[in-house]
Amino acid sequence: MSKKAGIILTVIFFAAAALYFTFLGRTANFPDPDSFYHAKMAALMRDNLVIKEFHWIKFADFTQKFTDQHFLYHIFLIPFTYLVNPLIGLKIATIILAIGVLIAFYFLLKRLGARWPLLFTAVLLFVTPFIFRINLAKAIAFSLLILFAATALLARKKNFGLAMLSFFYVWSYGGWILIILLTTSFFLADFLIKKELNFKPIINVAAGCALGIIINPFFPNNLLFYWEQIVQIGFINYQDKIPVGLEWYPYKILDFLSAIIFPVILSFIAFALWAKKIKNEQRQNTLDKKAISEKFSIIFAIFIFSLFLGVWTLKSQRFVEYFAPFFTLASALLITFSLPRNFSLKDIGDFLGTKIFPKLFLFIYSCLIIGFFFALSALKLESQFTKQFNFNYLKEPSEWLKNNTPAGSTIFHGSWGDFPMLFYHNSQNVYLSGMDPTFFYRFNPELYKEWLGIASGQIKNDLADKIKNDFGASFVLVKKNENKLKENLEKDGFTKKFENNEATIYSIKPL
């Protein structure tokens, strides 16, 4: 293929991927409620760039000592909030970032010398949970772009650039510890493969992260927040004690393997080719250990990082968005490393012989298999992105509360997952819990259990007294599916003030 034809094919591929992502995000729905939180934060930051007090959540340690763990991501979103509807702007920003991830992955493959970078980039389109996650209106794609850049800098030993990137990563995303893990993987690979102890990258990344924490608009409050977010929620996780977000629960092994089947197949091919290369070179006594160590160290580092991410993904499925691309990247580099220098895709055709039938059969069969899996993935994703949370979900109840309750008054609601929509449509009131239930649980475990008991309908008596005195709320928002809570409130003499097809609002006494 000529260089010009390759460029045209690359442009067509990414244009098609952009159209695909636009198709997934075409409706006025979000598959994840956190999208509303990010849109609202970006809108609020237009007027007050640094928000240090987050009084909209009542029961959390960070209420008066807030840290915006997505600070630079929210700054990136600000221009998109100037559209008629900030939620539409958020959709556009998300599509841009998602296609940016694929483009960055392609150029990372080229930078690291992988053959057929477009082919290996296309593999990611078949990893359904990866495509789902990078198309969420969250900081995931933003984080991946930084990690891809860090990988390129580590491979080229650009230590000052690593320090700067680490600094900005801390300002961008609460999962900045990933860049430390990535750098540690390169350190281990250098030690195991090249027998070198290269501390410079680790020192620079550690210094960059430390400065990012200290020279920070939220310092020293961010220290407490990172302890809660990274250690308590990320590492320890309270899924055995409280119901947390679905993304924090582990994969079943078979589900995990089926989700990443194409990267797994790619890895089998890579290791088979590598084993054959080593065997042939040993037989011919042409094994250049020095050359292998230089080339293989980067590949091994990315495999180590992938191993860490794979274990993490089995613990919490949300990390699949990191595991899939880095595992694919490592396999692609190993395939490039293992194949003869003069090997090309044309050699596969020569292997099949001169007869047209085997080639035609293989081509048609491959197209059918690829088309089947892509259609399966697209249908699943389309279903996820066209349902769930509509732009106007809980808008009417929120506006009623905004217009009929005192500013700053607390609203009792039955689920922490309601917060982003309530917050987006009405930032005048205060809500019990949001962002993650772990914050409420660690703030006051007994009060959290009482809240859960009332919301689930298990606590039925003296609800007015408990809601008013224990939670400081005079109004209760009950969604349509919270039938037991609604039944208990009506038995306890609460007054219905508002009702639509989404929720009912009660007050403790007539106003």
Query: What count of domains describes the coordinates?
Result: 2
| Number of helical segments with 4 or more residues | 23
- What is the radius of gyration computed over CA atoms, rounded to a whole number of angstroms? 26 Å
Helix and strand composition category? mainly alpha
User: Percent helix among the residues?
Assistant: 55-70%
**Mean model confidence by pLDDT:** 89
Note poorly predicted spans.
none
According to DSSP, the number of beta strands is 7
Q: What is the 3D form?
A: globular
Helix-strand string = HEHHHHHHHHHHHHHHHHEHEHEHHHEHEE
Oligomer: single chain
Proportion of beta-strand residues: 5-15%
Terminal-residue CA separation: 76 Å
* Side-by-side strand order of the widest sheet: 4-3-5-7-6
Biggest sheet layout:
5 strands, mixed
Highlighted features:
mainly alpha, single chain, 23 helices, five-stranded mixed sheet, 511 residues, 7 strands, two-stranded antiparallel sheet, 5% strand
